[in-house]
Fold this sequence. Notes:
Layout: H1 3-13, H2 15-21, E1 36-44, E2 59-63, E3 66-68, E4 70-75, E5 84-90, H3 96-111, E6 116-127, E7 130-133, E8 138-140, H4 141-150, H5 163-185, E9 192-197, H6 213-232, E10 235-240, H7 252-255, H8 276-282, E11 287-288, H9 294-306, E12 309-314, E13 324-331, E14 337-339, E15 343-345
Parallel strand pairs: 5-6, 5-9, 9-10, 10-11
Antiparallel strand pairs: 1-12, 1-14, 2-3, 2-13, 4-12, 6-7, 6-8, 13-15
Helix pairs in contact: 1-5, 1-6, 2-5, 3-4, 3-9
Amino acid sequence: xxxWFRLWPLVFSLLPVGHAQQxxxxxxxxxxxxxxxxxxxxxxxxxxNPVQGLEKGDFTVLDNQQPARIGSFAEKGPGSGxxxxxxxxxxxxxxxxxxxxxxxxxxxxxxxxxxxxxxxFSLAVFTDAGISIASQPTRDGNALAAALDADQTGxxxxxHSQGFYGAEDRLQLSIRALLQLTAYEAKRPGPKLVIxxxxxxxxxxxxxxxSTNKQQQALFETIIELRNSMRxxxxxxxxxxxLGTGDAxxxxxxxxxxxxxxxxxxxxxxxxxxxxxxxxxxxxxxxxNSNNDISAEVAACARAAAAGYLLTYQAPAAGQPGAYxxxxxxxxxPGLVARTRTGYYAPAGAAPSR
Length: 354
C-alpha cells in the first residue's frame, strides 16, 4: 500500500518537535541526558479502590528484571504533588455529533459541585488547526466551562470519507498534537494527567500495509521520542472514548491490544504502536470505552490522579541508545495492584554499558 511512502517523511519530521520546545524548566532531564526515572504509581485493591498508607519499603522496582534502588518517595495528596489534569477535547478524530456530546459531558463534569474542582485542571482543544491550550490550570470549573463554551469547535475538514489518505492526515495531526502538548507540559513542574477525550486516531496497520527499512527506522525514532518525552514531562495519559456504547464490541475497543508488546527494534514497528490506547497503557494510564457516562469517567480519572505514590529510582547503565527497558513495580502486600508506565528507551546520549 502506498500510504506509508507519503507518511514516513512527515513522521520523521515530527522528531525535533519535542526537543525544540523542551526548556530548562523541565522537572527531569530531557531525553538524551542520563538521570533518575520518575514514576507515578497508582495502587488499587482487587475492586479497583485506591490504596493509601503504603511506605517505601512496600515497593520494589525492577528495571529489565533487575532490582533498582528507590530514591525519593512520597504519597500523593492535597499539597503533596497530586497531578495537574489536562482535559483534551478531540475534534479531529470524532464526528461532529460525538464532539458535541464530548462538550456537553465535560460541561456537566466541570459544573458539578458548584464548579469547585478538587485539583487544578486546564483545557486543551484539538482541531484541524492544531492543539491549543484554552486555559491556565485552575480549580474553577465554571471558568473552564465558560472557556469551553467560548471555544466553538467547528466541523473537521479531514473526513473519514477521504479514505486512507484522510486517515493518514488525522494520524499525522494527532501525533504532532500530542508531541506539542508534551513539550508544553514539560516546562511545568510535577506530574500531569492528560485525559484525551476522543475515540483515538487511525491505526493504519494490518495486511497489505508494507514499509521499507528506512520507514521503519524513522517510525522507531518517533516512538522513542514520544515515549521518552512523555516520561520526562511526567505525563500519564488516559483515553476516554466519547462513542460509549455506540463503540461497544467494535474493533477499536480491542484492536489496540495487538500492539501492546514493546517495540525493541525497527523491524517490529507498526503504526498501531502509536495508537492512543497503546500510548495510554504504556504511560500507566487507562483505556475507558463502552460507557456513555463520560462525565463520570472523567471524574474517576481525576480521582485516581489525586491518589497514589511518586517515586524515583536511578536508572542502571543504559546500554545501546534506543535499547528498551521494561519497568515493573511489585508490592509486598498481597492482593494489591500497581499501575505505572511500562518502560522507557535508553537516551541517544547514553553511554553503552560495559
